[in-house]
Amino acid sequence: MRVTVRLFARLRDIAGAAELSRDLAAGATIGDVWRQLTAEFPDFAGYERSISTAVNADYARMDRVVADGDEVAFLPPVSGG
Amino acid sequence: MTTPLFAIGPAPLEVDRLARAAAGAAGPEHGADGAVVTFLGLVRNHNVGRRVRYLEYEAYEPLALKAFGRIAAEIQERWPSARLALHHRIGRLEIGEASIAIVVRSPHRGDAYAACRYAIERVKQIAPIWKREFFEGGDVWIEGATANPDDERARAEAERVACA
Fold first, then answer.
1. Nearest-by-Cβ selection for B145 from A13, A57, A77
2. Could you report the per-residue pLDDT of B90-138, keeping only the tens digit for each?
3. Which residues in chain A have Cβ-Cβ distances shorter than 8 Å to B132?
4. Which of A64, B10, B123, B129 could hold A60 in an S-S bridge, CB 3.0 to 4.6 Å?
């Protein structure tokens, strides 16, 4: 199955893209997507404890199982206002 | 065109339009309100010793709008008579420009002040919005809170600050 990954702020800069497509095995979680990205972009590792995650524009936990076509977003610590 | 209660976009913020949106949300009870509190967050020319040139904001818009709605629901629960309108600007903002505008109406000023303060604290905690600071000598993404809307300690802290 295939998901769309959305990256923001510094994560976007590190990856050099705001949006990526990634293939995953059935039953994969957000955490699996994160580990795949961290292997690809080692500088992501520093965000392990501070990111938030969302699926289809709703906050979700790392252990959430993703489905084909989902949009998975990784959000570094926020600084709005 | 009616102004939405919650919005994110590149256009300069207009407090008057926001205030009208909040008044509209009051419906026929409009006349019951005795207070309107407005907060504008401005781009400052200095930050932690750096001379700031300008800021760039970005947002995960659909989730940020949901976060604004969640903040409104929390306010409804804590200050039932208060109504919130909130717009956040994105893109490049110059020194002195407003990045966020918040308007709260309520029958009494105490609730309006408290709910307005609560709203800005919660935006900083849970809205997926980021600012990149361009200062003299470089640029940096500002990273504040880990966004977790279910973190009750953060919510309690926002309420404590709002009611101090």
1. A77
2. 999 999 999 999 999 999 999 999 999 999 999 999 999 999 999 999 9
3. 9
4. A64
Contact map slice: B 105-124 vs A, CB within 8 A:
120, 123-124
Q: Is the model's pTM score more than 0.90? A: yes
Count the domains in chain B.
Answer: 1
Range A17-25, long-range pairs (CB < 8 A, 24+ positions): A24/A66, A25/A1
Tell me the CATH architecture of domain A2-75.
Roll (3.10)
Buried b (16+ CB within 10 A) or exposed e, A28-65: bbbebbbbebeeeeeebeebeeebbbbbebebbeeebe
Reported ipTM: the value is: 0.97
- A78 with B63: Cβ contact below 8 A: no
Judge whether B7 is closer than 8 Å to chain A, CB to CB.
no
Rounded to an integer, what distance in angstroms lies between the CA atom of residue B21 and that of residue B69? 15
The two tokens of residue A25 are 């095995």
Is B128 in contact with A58 (Cβ distance < 8 A)?
Answer: no
- Tell me the C-alpha distance between B101 and B8, whole Å: 11
Q: What is the pLDDT of residues B34-49, one digit of tens each?
A: 999 999 999 999 999 9
Q: Is residue B1 part of a domain?
A: no
Residues 2-21 of A with CB under 8 A from B: 6, 8-10, 13
